[in-house]
Amino acid sequence: MPAGTPDQRRRGDPAPPAGRAAFVFADLVGYTALTAHHGDELAADLALALADLARTVFRTATFVKTIGDAVMVRVPAANDAVDHALTLCEVVCARVDWPQLTTGIAYGTAAQRGTDYFGATVNRAARLCAHAQAGQVLVDQPLRDAVGRHDGILWEPGGEVVLRNLAEPVTVHQATWRRAAPRAVPAIDPVCRMRIDPATAIRSTHHGQELWFCSPECTARFHRSPEAFTKS
Q1: Comparing C-alpha atoms, which of 17, 22, 3 is closest to residue 119?
Q2: How confident is the prediction along the chain (232 residues), in pLDDT tens digits per residue?
Q3: Residues 147 and 127 grouped into a single domain
Q4: How many domains is the chain built from?
Q5: Of 26, 46, 85, 186, which sits most exposed with the smallest number of CB within 10 A?
């Protein structure tokens, strides 16, 4: 998910202001699998729906662009960046028939060209997003320092992490809502990677493990070659 990829913007989006800010990347998990098993039309609809949702949630921010199934947002205030990112992640990850979401946030300066941004801070945010697991919001140390005390957020130190193509390790923190109840493990279709409702899903087992599927098609694909969809 490299920064600077050709983007999609809506006419009328304002040019982002210059200066120090938080850069947020949010990416749908398993989007390639979803596209392969449910087709281009649904995949495109979900990518655009994520962009629309991000525009709504990040109300104090500038929506920079979409990059396939990911979005990039510039937020002037570090606190707002974390608050809005957690809200977006919470909303997306709770939606049935949607993939889960990963999010990365980095804070610093960036070079502006037109309405796009480039540089180390942007790259760091993109790599944090790629490193995150489903449902995680990961931030770098400058973002954590810029937020300071925030009574609504719990911070879990992740230590130094080596991220792809970055010369130096990055100190990572995971942000979660302090008010949030422990998240139930979502039912995820192992084939298309969408969250599904166990009450209406197709239930099956494989080597004693309970599995749920969104459709007969995904069920059949799994049982034809389960090794393609399970971890060894």
Answers
A1: 3
A2: 444 433 444 444 444 345 789 999 999 998 988 898 889 999 999 999 999 999 999 998 999 999 999 999 999 999 999 999 999 999 999 998 899 999 999 999 999 999 999 999 999 999 999 999 999 999 999 999 999 989 999 999 999 999 998 989 999 999 999 976 666 667 888 888 888 888 888 888 888 888 989 888 888 988 898 888 876 4
A3: yes
A4: 2
A5: 186
Domain containing 39 — which CATH number? 3.30.70.1230
Sheet holding 170-177, edge to edge: 62-67, 70-75, 21-28, 101-108, 137-140, 170-177, 153-161
Q: How open is the CA angle 61-62-66, to the nearest 5 degrees? A: 120
Q: Please tell me the distance from the alpha carbon of residue 195 to that of residue 198, in angstroms, as a whole number.
A: 9
Q: Do 99 and 191 reside in the same domain of the chain?
A: no
